[in-house]
Amino acid sequence: MSQQIGTERGSTDALVQVRNLKTYYDEGGLFGGQPVRAVDGVTFNIQEGETLGLVGESGCGKSTLGRTLLQLEDATGGEILYDGEDITSYEQDELLSWRRNAQMVFQDPESSLNERMTVGEIVREPLDVHEWKTDGERRQRVQSLLETVGLQREHYYRYPHQFSGGQRQRISIARTLTLNPDFMVLDEPVSALDVSVQAEIINLLEELQAEFGLTYLFIAHDLSVVRHISDRVAVMYLGHIMEIGPTEELFADPSNPYTHALLSAIPLPDPGQERDRITLQGTPPNPRYPPNGCPFSTRCPARIRPSGYQDLDEGVWSQLNTVREVLRERQRADRTIRERIRGSLGWETRFGDMNDTITELFGEFEVPANVQEILDEVARRANENDEEAALTLLNDEFGSVCDGVDEDPEQSDSELQFYTVGSTDRKSYCHRHDSEYREPGPVIEDRSIKEHGE
Amino acid sequence: MSETVTPESDVAPLRKRFLDNPRPALLWLVGALALLVLELGRILGWVKALGTGVKFAVMTTAALPKWVGGNVESAVADTGVLPGRLEPVGELLGSGVVTVLVFGFVVSVFLSLSERRVTRLLRPNMPSYRRLTVERALLTGILTVVSALMVLTPIGGLVESMIGFLTAVLDNISNQAPTLTSREIIPNQGYRSPDGSGWEGTFLGLSPGQSWGVRVAVVYAYAFGWLVWLWRGYNVFREQYRAADWTPRDDTLDRFSGHLWGLFGLVVVFSFVVLALWAPAISTVPLEERSNEPYRFEHQFLDDEDIEGNPLTDGSGDLETVRHGQANLYSVSKGKGQNVGLFSYDDFDRFSPLGTTPSGGDMMTQLAHGARTSLIIALTGLGLATLIALVMALLTAYYKGLVDLLTVVTSDTIVSIPLFLLVMMLSVIFSGSDHPLVTPLDGGLLLAMVFAFAFWPGLWRAIRGPTLQIAEEDWIDAAKSYGQTPSKIMRKHMAPYVVSYTMIYASLLVGSTIIVTAALSFLGLGISEPTPEWGRLISSGQDYITTDSWHVSTVSGIMIVFVVTGFNALGDGIRDAIDPESDIGDGDAAAAGGGG
Ligand code: SF4
């Protein structure tokens, strides 16, 4: 059973609907080349009055997503429906009047306020831009807003320099409130603050939400804060949303392998309890060259393995992964003409001999003969500077649906999609939820036991 | 949200704060007025000169459409599309289109700078972007119609004669108005009284040297008075009227006032500017009398020497009159006994505090007016260069991409032309034709334009980094998120941070312009006679540097070194005051400034 999230519910009470949104950077730059796929096709809704938490490692595209929702970045593709209207297609004037509805709180209170302006000037600027009422009324409103966020009216004529980080964040929040918005993007609003101050700001945000009926997109990498404030959570990895659902359910019983990995990093409140920390291999791939198939496939602890190699050693699998990354790296590297010639003459290039690399990688493991054979062939192709062919071979042999390889074309759709998981409205982006495969949870457990030999 | 709070709890706006406590401000204002009245004549003279400059700029701009139109016309004529008799139509069309374009540009700049929207009163609900477009079209149209009326109907002549009348009135006032430092109040050109009792025609009968000293002292005291009073005014504002009890600027000023090297620079620059502004008062003799038209003006002196040159001690000397030009021939400083040195009188009892030039002119007069030339060139040239660099820096940092790339290419191209080569090329091109740009300051204005053209790329390069950094700040994104217009984002949220950097580099470049101007004059390029210029003074005294007329080159050389050092010191001071941690190398801009 599977479906796209977009079709869920009557979505009448969805304030923001995001449909297959893409934001690419450096597109068709001066030298052509691959764009950076910061946000690569995400789809979700934000309900009126709720707080949607957006978590992920830094660089996963969550900030870009937030900025695209506010049209600070142009979307490369897809739609953002706000109250049912696509704001990506707005003209200048429509966009300007829409901007009243949506505001943003930034992460760094040092950078979000112009130090050469007084607090009053800073907070009232949105009113000036939208030509709201008269001068005196604007000043009145700003001063009462300063009180609303826990500052004093007299602070109108102070400069940001005279305030602490927490107070500056309050000023920033006051500025976002001036135009009476419905929707706010909070981009890590507390991560630059002291822990004691964090709680105050979080409380303030919750109070304001209750008072003005605000809808929040709360971007953070601190999971405990997200767990506290969010009604629902979306987990993002490499430009994709991997899992989205109600906070408590998602935290208590993660479905997606990436969510598993992410949550395993939080220390449990009860020290007596034990949880295996899943250490992810390597680093996230370069968003300019995302992997084929599932975005998480290069590091996934539950990656589906081809049926032929079910009992290969865990270590060998992880080294196979490394080989693939090395090949991808080599494929992308720019080569000078000289290097190409040297390579074709069989001379040594700076890329070194693939055979050596492989020997080094697999030295300590027992590699079955059939695997070794394939590896030798991979090395031979790579040494001929045909990484393309080497990768194809590697993928054909060891790839699975996770890598976008369709093992069995008749059986199922190898296109990755969202599966509804759990009891409530929760989605996860992983092949493992297909009835063909085992669920991620048990698989991860099994493998980690195998690896650690427990 | 509660909006029922009583206004009393507010800090009042500036107008109200002034009305509540007007005394300090009024007191200060009275003082300022008194200072103004003391030198009203001279200050009105400056206003007039400024007006002339503005008029010149407007006329040159106004000539642009005709010029472009002419080119269009000849281009059209070349293609032979239009029959000969239709040529005037082509010209009219060309200048018309260009006029509208120029107006359109001016209007857009003006509108993006002004806050108020006129049409807001008529159509309050019009979307703001459309309103901007409408207003642009409207204003351009009005301007075009008005100027067409001016050109094609007698209204133009009427307006012109009105302006002429106003100018005449202003002239009259400025001639009548008191001027503390004028030659009439403190005269220094006189002659010894035949009875040997002292001097006639000088201030209080003092010697010409002493009365000149008094006048210079009064000039500097007066200028210093203004400085003190302005500082006081700032403090009055700060203590009595400013709502904020602290601003970032306070720290900057504090740091600067503790910066000795910067203060030294300020003093030197201040003295230089006063020297330039009050050049006619600091000169011992009016420039036109002794140097520009020396045979039109006469000088009276007591001829109390006999034929052999021995002084007549019996008081039997006669008052004689000589033309300055003739007298100059006897007062040259060319070494070999022909010398009028520092603080000395020549045979005609004319006082020369810095001696005379090799052609018999007065060094002090030349130096003071030369300072004026340098200041005008530096201000116009660097002012323009700074403006271009600043605007380009803001645009390239805000829009990045293609704009940035094109500017890099352009600036690299310009920087790759050696400055001297550029100036030589341009002076060859322009000196042949009597182009209107050549006349002012005998090529000084043209030189300023060349400087503007040659220096903006270096300045832009120097401030590009800081500007790009500012463009990355979150407050820029915040401003975008509530819909602030790009032009206001650049002005309110970026420019204040960049202007200070620009000022630092510009003050470092002032030195370069002075040196390059001097070097060009030294080579016989750049500014030609009779506009006084320091470089030409140096070169004219070059041959006599080893004789007793050493002062000609030496004094002017020392002045250049001094002033250039002063500007650099000021730049250092500003830099440290603005950003104590910064480490802005002065190599970049200075290297670009060095040019050739
Ligand atoms: S699709 Fe495959 S690689 Fe991606 S998360 Fe699921 S199991 Fe892991």
Task: Describe the SSE topology.
The complex is a heterodimer of chains A (454) and B (596).
Chain A: E1 14-25, E2 36-47, E3 51-55, H1 62-69, E4 77-82, E5 85-86, H2 92-98, E6 102-105, H3 119-129, H4 135-148, H5 165-177, E7 183-187, H6 195-212, E8 215-220, H7 223-229, E9 232-237, E10 240-246, H8 247-252, H9 257-263, H10 314-332, H11 337-344, H12 354-362, H13 369-383, H14 387-398, E11 418-421, E12 426-429, H15 440-452
Parallel strand pairs in A: 3-8, 3-9, 6-7, 7-8
Antiparallel strand pairs in A: 1-2, 1-4, 4-5, 9-10, 10-12, 11-12
Chain B: H1 14-20, H2 23-38, H3 40-79, H4 87-113, H5 119-122, H6 128-152, H7 155-176, E1 191-192, E2 199-200, H8 208-241, H9 248-257, H10 260-277, H11 279-282, H12 287-292, E3 298-303, E4 318-323, H13 324-330, E5 344-345, E6 351-352, H14 363-399, H15 401-416, H16 419-432, H17 444-471, H18 474-481, H19 486-522, H20 534-541, H21 551-578, H22 587-594
Antiparallel strand pairs in B: 1-2, 3-4, 5-6
Helix pairs in contact in B: 2-8, 3-4, 3-7, 4-6, 6-7, 9-21, 10-14, 10-21, 14-15, 14-17, 14-19, 15-17, 16-17, 17-19, 17-22, 18-19, 19-20, 19-21, 19-22, 20-21
The structure holds iron/sulfur cluster.
Structural write-up:
The complex is a heterodimer of chains A (454) and B (596). Chain A is an alpha/beta fold and 454 residues long. Chain A has 3 domains: 1-101 and 181-289 and 417-454, Rossmann fold; 113-173, no CATH class; 314-399, no CATH class. Chain A is 37% helix and 16% strand. Chain A contains 15 helices and 12 strands. In chain A, the strands form 2 sheets. In chain A, strands 6-7-8-3-9-10-12-11 form an 8-stranded mixed beta sheet, sandwiched between helices. Chain A starts with 13 loop residues before the first strand and ends with a helix. Residues 1-11 of chain A have low confidence and may be disordered. Chain B has helices at residues 14-20, 23-38, 40-79, 87-113, 119-122, 128-152, 155-176, 208-241, 248-257, 260-277, 279-282, 287-292, 324-330, 363-399, 401-416, 419-432, 444-471, 474-481, 486-522, 534-541, 551-578, 587-594; strands at 191-192, 199-200, 298-303, 318-323, 344-345, 351-352. Chain B starts with 13 loop residues before the first helix and ends with a helix. In chain B, the strands form 3 sheets. A two-stranded antiparallel ribbon of chain B has the order 1-2. In chain B, 34% of the residues are buried. Chain B is mainly alpha-helical and 596 residues long. In chain B, helix 3 packs across helix 4 (87-113). Chain B has 22 helices and 6 strands. Chain B folds into 3 domains: 40-164, no CATH class; 287-306 and 314-361, no CATH class; 364-589, MetI-like (MetI-like fold, Orthogonal Bundle), CATH 1.10.3720. Bound molecules: iron/sulfur cluster (SF4). Residues 257, 294, 296-297, 300, 302-304, 402, 416, 430-432 of chain A line the site of iron/sulfur cluster. Iron/sulfur cluster is lined by residues 257, 294, 296-297, 300, 302-304, 402, 416, 430-432 of chain A.
